[in-house]
Amino acid sequence: MAGVVEKRLADLGIVLPTPVAPVANYVPFVRTGNFMVVSGQLCLDAEGQLVAKGQLGAGVSIEDGQKAARACAINILAQIKNALGDLDKIARVVRLGGFINSAPGFPDGPKVMNGASDLVVAAFGDKGRHARSTVGVAALPMDAAVEVEGSFEVS
Q1: Is 26 exposed, middle or buried, given 0-12, 13-18 or 19+ CB atoms closer than 10 A?
Q2: What domains can you pick out in the chain, each with its CATH number?
Q3: Which of 6, 100, 134, 147 has its CA 20 to 30 A from that of 109?
């Protein structure tokens, strides 16, 4: 039976995909006590294809970047569901960190990152409001447009 958060996601038309396994020497998440960090998730859709590829400000629009950031957030939630079995075990979204594949001088990374932040707040309500960093980078794995990581208080 789905919990409150999964019902909110369903109302948004979101079905969590099977979490992607790490492709290098790291784990998808670490939990210590009531704190959990989810490794960076790329903007892959349910079929494993990139939602947006390339650099923001050089061929990828802000709107496509926001869709990519949203996909990253969905993949973070899939990792949490896999780890905890229930998204309602998230007591607080503490922080999201976004990496935006950016052309030199691209200033709108925070607008792109709103795609992830808006979804998390929609899913978790007030406990989804979080601290955040957004960093423009020269490249990401697979030429992904966006990668997002997250930190959470869990019960």
Answers
A1: exposed
A2: 35-154 (3.30.1330.40)
A3: 6
Which pLDDT does position 86 carry in this prediction?
Answer: 97
Q: How far apart are CA 83 and CA 85, in angstroms?
A: 6
Exposure string of 1-19, with b = 16+ CB inside 10 Å and e = fewer, is: eeeebbebbeeeebebbeb
Dihedral-angle region of residue 153 (phi above 0 means left; psi in -120 to 50 means alpha; beta otherwise): beta
| CB-based burial label for 45 (10 Å; 0-12, 13-18, 19+) | middle
**Structural tokens at position 124:** 């978790």
pTM for the full model?
0.97
